Amino acid sequence: MPQIRFTALQEAQRRMAPEVELPYTRVSEIFGEYTFNYRSMKEYMTPEAYRSVSDAVKKGTKIDRGIADQVATGMKAWAINKGATHYTHWFQPLTGATAEKHDSFFEPTGDGQAIEKFSGGMLVQQEPDASSFPNGGIRNTFEARGYTAWDPTSPAFIMGRTLCIPTVFVSYTGEALDNKTPLLRALQSIDQAATDVCQYFDRNVRKVTATLGWEQEYFLVDMALFHARPDLKLTGRTLLGHAPAKGQQLDDHYFGSIPERARQFMRELEMESYRLGIPVKTRHNEVAPSQFELAPVFEEANISVDHNSLIMDLMDKVARRHHFKVLLHEKPYKGVNGSGKHNNWSLATDTGVNLLAPGKTPKSNLQFLTFFINAIMAVHNHADLLRASIASASNDHRLGANEAPPAIISVFIGSQLTATLDALEQLEKGKLSPEQKTDLKLNVVGKIPEILLDNTDRNRTSPFAFTGNKFELRAVGSLANCAQPMTILNTIMAQQLREFKAAVDAHIAEGMKKDDAIFNVLRDYIKQSQNIRFEGDGYSDEWAAEAEKRGLSNVRTTPHALDFYVTDSAVKLFVENEVMNEVEVHARHEIMLEEYKMKIQIESRVLGDIAGNHVVPTAINYQNKLIQNVRGLKEVLAPEVFQKVAKDQLHMIESISGYISTIIAEKDAMIEERKRCNAIEDTREQAIAYCEKVIPYFDKIRYACDKLELLVDDELWPLPKYRELIFI
Ligand code: ADP
Ligand code: MG
Questions:
Q1: Which atom, in ligand 1's list, is nearest to the CA of 345?
Q2: Where is the secretion signal located (predicted)?
């Protein structure tokens, strides 16, 4: 009797939804109470320290050491007041998770007494034991140590009883060992490049920030059932399991009533998010049963990325209190819709203008078109790099399957803007006549409506869609750290804007008027970037064929997609924009390949174990029951009757034997294949071998296991089934 499944089922079924008490009536009462925000800073810091931090955030100025001591004193007083006993530097190593090392404020003074201590030095820099974080060879080649350094642009916060200080994580030689450092550099690059271009339109613009609004999809599963599934526990997804009789065919889940237990979880999660200053806004059920989405109001990209990392941690913590496990994996269940994390992205000026929102006047619309067309051009020129930025073993399950954006990068802009670009494309080269200019202003640029109607009817199959006042990068995985795609997107945009400015300035130097020059360059870009634009169904086979004709890449697997990180042009791009140097790029490539390989290796081992230790013995057990029964029938029945009634059971016994043999044979072959792969020295070759040689066994083994799940007596089956995982 497979105790664990049935105990888990009982436990899960018996659970009641706890009523979450909210200690406030209005969100504003608690919003940000656990963050060291401007309000707390004003209260706990000297005016001098306050000004210094606020300048660092707004203008990127440095905070000097003396001031750091004052900031630390204020931060400590605030944190202790809120009940914090420890502090930690909080960072995002390349493992994808977040890391922290807690130290106590408490320090003995040597006379039998103690004080609470936290100095500027402790705030500004720390040396975590970095040896266990991936570094792609950086620390081996250079210096053995890495350190974390305070990022004052992202507010410190309290989790539990710990003051968490957002930091970057770099090696002693300055190479980035985390996700945040390149992001901050990319954000600086886009700030400079976009501010320069803004000068054509408005000389008051001093700073441009990238904005990000992510939409986090996830699944919830009961904790007891989760623990009864070793594959979910160890790999984040089910490696086997037959599709339930009732799936999402009915589409009755989407926006359906949120089950009470999930609703209580969300209420508590929202409360904790508000306390941490994360402006979560929407909650609803997703397409699949037990799938949900959480989205905040957009924020400055660095803060938004931190908030996403933080909320992924927070979800897990809050879920435990509700006996749920949060599944962030892109594809926890085969045949059930997967999870993504749309990244809504735009650029905003310090004068309050969204550069990707159409304006009221032709002038503001020319600015909009400039940024809009440059974004299309950036994706056109660097589509492959954008593809690489969303590559991971788990996201491979989504990209390329007919439910998420395809692995082909394209841009959707809607029919209204397509018409605008078509009209602009007709412009003749060179100076514009006064009539042409008037016509443009009145009939093209002036006609762009402030609110783009057809963008409400969006193309959900596009990986990069314009949605009225922002682009939405839809191909990001639910498990991903948004820093990677945001680093790439902002870097390619920065590069593109620099090239644009150089081209416009060259025309101006030749004597062209500014507006003429801008129109001329934009017209060229529209022509050059035609190929990347696609308005049709991104899931269709026709599109795959059409994209191939257009010369667009369609790279379906991670190890190959990652190649785009290290092409000469990509390295040049990173170096020129001061986002990463050559060593950092190659190190990252190496780390991502290594991570890919490990993920597949673990899945392969876990699948082999479950198939061998759970499925095969269960099948044999049931087969023995059948054999006993057949023997009994033979004893009691006349031979001709026996032949007739035992036929089906004998057939089942044979089928079970067949599947058992398949599992054992394929499992052994897979192990041999893994051995061959492990002998490969080159990381890239090895990752490719795992992808092409090991993964194909997964489906073969799974197929046999899933058939057995259907054949074997339900009472004997040890693993919670899909219908139980998804519907309870
Ligand atoms: P969907 O229909 O794809 O679910 P929603 O309208 O729910 O989209 O979500 C829109 C998302 O876009 C929100 O997360 C919001 O914060 C974000 N967003 C809106 N404006 C901007 C902007 N200017 N920059 C970045 N993100 C934005
Ligand atoms: Mg969306």
A1: 25
A2: none
Cα–Cα distances (Å) from 593 to 176, 300, 691, in that order, read: 18, 30, 11
CB 187 within 8 A of CB 209: yes
Distance from residue 213's CA to the centre of ligand 1 (Å) = 5
- What's the pTM value of the predicted model, to 2 decimals? 0.94
Q: What is the pLDDT of residues 245-267, one digit of tens each?
A: 765 554 454 445 568 889 999 99
**Is residue 565 within 8 Å of residue 589, measured between CB atoms?**
yes
Out of 470, 478, 489, mutate this one to test ligand 1's pocket (max ligand atoms within 8 Å of CB): namely 470
ipTM for the complex shown: 0.95
- Which residue carries 């022509």 as its tokens? 527
∠ CA 237-238-243, rounded to 5°: 130
Q: Return the ligand 1 atom nearest residue 342 CA.
A: 3
Ligand 2 centroid, distance to 211 Cα (angstroms): 15
CA distances from 599 to 236, 473, 583, 694 (A): 10, 25, 24, 12
Q: Where are the beta strands (DSSP E) in 314-376?
A: 324-327, 341-349
Looking at the chain, the whole-number percentage of residues with pLDDT higher than 90 is: 74
Average pLDDT over residues 541-563: 95
Distance CA 309, CA 370 (A): 32
Cβ-count burial of 325 within 10 angstroms (0-12 exposed, 13-18 middle, 19+ buried)? buried
**Interval between CA 274 and ligand 1 midpoint (Å):** 18
What does the pLDDT average to over 706-725? 95
Q: Ligand 1 pocket: which residues have CB below 6 Å? A: 211-213, 215, 282, 295, 297-298, 342, 344-346, 354, 469-470
In the chain, the largest separation of any two C-alpha atoms, in whole Å, equals: 106
Distance 215 CA to ligand 2 centre (A): 6
pLDDT band at 658 (very low <50, low <70, confident <90, very high): very high
Instruction: Note the pLDDT of residue 141.
Output: 44
Q: Give residue-wise pLDDT tens across range 109-157.
A: 888 888 888 888 888 888 776 666 677 766 554 444 688 889 999 999 9
Q: Which of 215, 459, 476 to mutate to test the pocket of ligand 1 (most atoms within 8 A of CB)?
A: 215
pLDDT tens, residue by residue, 601-611: 999 999 999 99
Looking at the DSSP assignment, which residues form a beta bridge with residue 242? none
The CATH class of 595-727 is mainly alpha
Closest ligand 1 atom, residue 344 Cα: 26
How much distance in Å is there from the Cα of 215 to the middle of ligand 1?
8
Mean pLDDT score, 193-217:
97
- Mean pLDDT, range 190-203, rounded to an integer: 97
Strand pairing partners for 212?
299, 345
What kind of fold does domain 31-178 have according to CATH? Answer: Ubiquitin-like (UB roll) (3.10.20)
Q: What is the mean pLDDT of the chain?
A: 91
Residue nearest to atom 23 of ligand 1 (CA): 346
Which numbered ligand comes closest to the C-alpha of 342? 2
- Residue 456 Cα to ligand 1 midpoint, Å, equals 12
Contact assessment for residue 295 and residue 282, using Cβ atoms and an 8 Å cutoff = yes
Fold of 188-580: Creatine Kinase; Chain A, domain 2 (3.30.590)
**144 with 593: CB under 8 angstroms?**
no
Domain segments of the chain as ranges = 31-178, 188-580, 595-727
The span from the CA of 58 to the CA of 82, in Å, is 27
Probe residue for ligand 1, chosen from 300, 344, 412 as the CB with the greatest number of ligand atoms within 8 Å: 344
Residue 125: its pLDDT value, please? 84
